[in-house]
Specification:
Chain B: GO terms for molecular function: ABC-type transporter activity. Chain B: Its main location: membrane. Chain B: It is a multi-pass membrane protein. The complex is a heterodimer of chains A (288) and B (277). With 288 residues, chain A is α/β, with parallel strands linked by helices. The two termini of chain A are 35 Å apart. Chain A has two domains: 218 residues, P-loop containing nucleotide triphosphate hydrolases (Rossmann fold, 3-Layer(aba) Sandwich); 60 residues. In chain A, helix 5 packs parallel to helix 6. Chain A contains ten helices and twelve strands. In chain B, helix 9 crosses helix 10. Chain B has one domain. Chain B has 277 residues and is an all-alpha fold. The chains are: A alpha/beta (288), B mainly alpha (277). At the A-B interface, helix 1, helix 2 and helix 3 of A face helix 1, helix 4 and helix 11 of B.
């Protein structure tokens, strides 16, 4: 919640096309300093493409992108030193020891975290002298976050950070990310297809679907704004009825005005963010 | 300069890792097997010349191990592109440059270690090596230095062009073919002329020749083509490969690095896991 902060990430009408296939069709959003922003969307929505363009790993087809004051397509090494990227590691640097790797990677940056301090922050102190290949999946992901953080980045990217996690590892990971965003002025952009994760971690959620932004706001605002229709169910003369409406209050008042006490078994279910999101996902899958 | 220093530090860490614990066995295997082979046929004579093969073969083998640095670089580049090491380097400021410096330091370190593992016991197994003179060490030094630059820069360029560790595995076949016609284990003069011609295009023959010229008495040049150590030609061919490698490698490596992304590494992983599963 940092509405007054300076804009560190500015994406305007970003487009990406592979051959004749449009992956991004005009994506526009911003992030302010210190904000945790979630890019939420079903698989294939274009989240990874977007984040890789912002990281400078991919060249966009069209649109304007500004990351920490530079165009990522031409960002130099000094620019890169201000970014942190949490990669989904697999088996790279398997022979390196945790502390050795963090100390080495820190040496590329002007003002790195102390390796031991960082290891403590992500809860790997017991494993500091272990070889990376001997870490469990969850431990490895914590190391990935530590590597992303080692240069004290102003902007941290996390692409699908908890894919393949068990619930325990997921919760631990969330705690680490929340801790990071609270302590420093680090801006965080994360992608996820998990609504609960976005709600838990992010100050603001941008919903990406089919290469377009379909919603942008806090979780509460989204539930409100994009909300769909509430569901009203009732029984009349022994028959069950269900209707959808934008305004349940007005609908129910009209219902009573018409039928009075004959209306029985009334139930109103307000649309939730989850409904809206699931509807989006279904839509996207229907197209695919 | 700072990047270079970080790269060297990286190379030394990886070199230490390559020679510690269970890795040590892998590292020693090939040099030791080669020594055993040399031991068993060290006393065989070459074409009634009175020259024993052991003395001819050991220097040639040293040259071959320098050339194998090329294979090592190709393997590292393809494996570490697939496992995400290169992407990690790309996400780090000056990371790719430091990675490459580190890889060349590490590979050179490995090659020099192989040479020591071969030469130190080899000097006791084989008679007639010329190890006492300054000029032989001088020749050895420039041949090894030029050979390392030539083979590793060409290896880096090939490693950037080859798409996967499997393809890199296939690439070792032509390398083995070149080694087999390069007069490493038996003098090249025993081969038909057209094969001699082909062999002289590649660095392996010249590395072997350079090593023999460094370590064998001058009289032994009579066994060679043109009955000469041909230092000028050795310098020319190795130098040409080095220049070609140094010109091409940065271009193709830059192109390779530009293409790495998380999505690509995820795709590599997907493919690799399918193969395993």
């Amino acid at each position: 919640m940092n509405d007054g902060g300076e804009i560190v990430l500015d994406v305007d009408d970003l487009r990406m096309r592979y051959g004749t296939h449009d992956v991004l069709r005009g994506v526009t959003f911003q992030a302010r300093r210190g904000e945790v922003l979630a890019l939420l969307g079903p698989n294939g929505a274009g989240k990874t493409t977007t984040i890789e363009i912002l990281e400078g790993f991919r060249t966009r087809s069209a649109g304007r992108v500004d990351v920490l004051g530079d165009d990522p397509a031409h960002g130099g090494e000094a620019w890169r030193a201000r970014l942190g990227i949490v990669l989904q590691s697999w088996r790279d640097h398997g022979k390196w020891r945790v502390r050795e790797l963090l100390a080495h990677l820190g040496s590329y940056y002007p003002d790195p975290w102390d390796a031991s301090e960082l290891i403590a922050t992500v809860g790997l102190t017991e494993h500091a002298d272990r070889q990376v290949r001997r870490l469990s999946g969850g431990q490895r992901r914590r190391l990935d976050v530590a590597i992303g953080m080692v240069g004290r980045p102003e902007l941290l990217f996390l692409d699908e950070p908890t894919t393949g996690f068990d619930p325990e590892a997921r919760r631990e990971f969330h705690d680490i990310v929340l801790g990071l965003s609270r302590t420093g002025g680090t801006t965080v952009l994360l992608t996820t297809h998990d609504l609960a994760e976005a709600e838990k971690l992010a100050d603001r959620i941008v919903v990406l679907d089919g290469g377009r932004i379909v919603a942008d706001g806090t979780a509460a605002e989204l539930a409100d704004r994009i909300a769909g229709e509430d569901e009203v169910a009732w029984t009349l003369d022994g028959r069950r009825h269900v209707a959808s409406t934008r305004d349940a209050t007005r609908f129910v008042r009209a219902l009573f005005a018409e039928h009075g006490d004959a209306v029985a078994g009334l139930a109103v279910r307000p649309s939730s963010l989850e409904d809206t999101y699931l509807a989006l996902v279904r839509q996207a899958e229907g197209r695919a | 300069m700072r990047t270079f220093r970080i790269g060297v530090a990286r190379g030394l860490i990886e070199l230490r890792q390559a020679f510690s614990g269970s890795e040590l066995v892998n590292q020693l295997l090939w040099p030791v097997l080669t020594l055993v082979a040399i031991f068993f046929y060290r006393n065989r004579e070459f074409r009634h010349t009175g020259i024993r093969l052991g003395g001819l073969v050991l220097p040639g083998v040293l040259g071959m191990f320098v050339a194998l640095g090329m294979v090592l670089v190709i393997q590292y580049l393809t494996v570490e592109r697939e496992d995400g090491t290169l992407l990690r380097a790309r996400a780090t400021p000056h990371g790719i440059r430091a990675y490459l410096v580190g890889k060349l330091v590490m590979t050179s370190g490995c090659v020099l270690a192989y040479l020591a593992i071969l030469l130190v016991p080899g000097a006791f197994l084989v008679d007639g090596l010329r190890l006492g003179s300054v000029s032989s060490w001088f020749t050895l030094a420039w041949v090894v230095a030029l050979g390392l630059v030539a083979t590793q820069s060409v290896g880096a360029a090939l490693g950037a062009l080859v798409s996967s560790p499997r393809a890199a595995g296939l690439l070792t076949l032509p390398v083995m073919a070149v080694i087999s016609i390069s007069g490493v284990f038996y003098p090249i003069t025993a081969l038909p002329g057209w094969l001699q011609g082909i062999a002289q295009v590649f660095p392996v023959y010249w590395l072997g020749l350079g090593m023999r010229s460094a370590l064998l008495p001058d009289g032994m040049a009579s066994v060679e083509l043109h009955h000469s150590w041909r230092h000028l030609e050795t310098f020319g061919v190795l130098g040409a490969w080095a220049v070609a490698g140094l010109l091409i490698a940065p271009v193709v490596l830059r192109r390779m690095a530009r293409r790495e992304s998380g999505a690509r590494v995820a795709a590599y992983r997907e493919k690799a896991l399918q193969r395993i599963g």
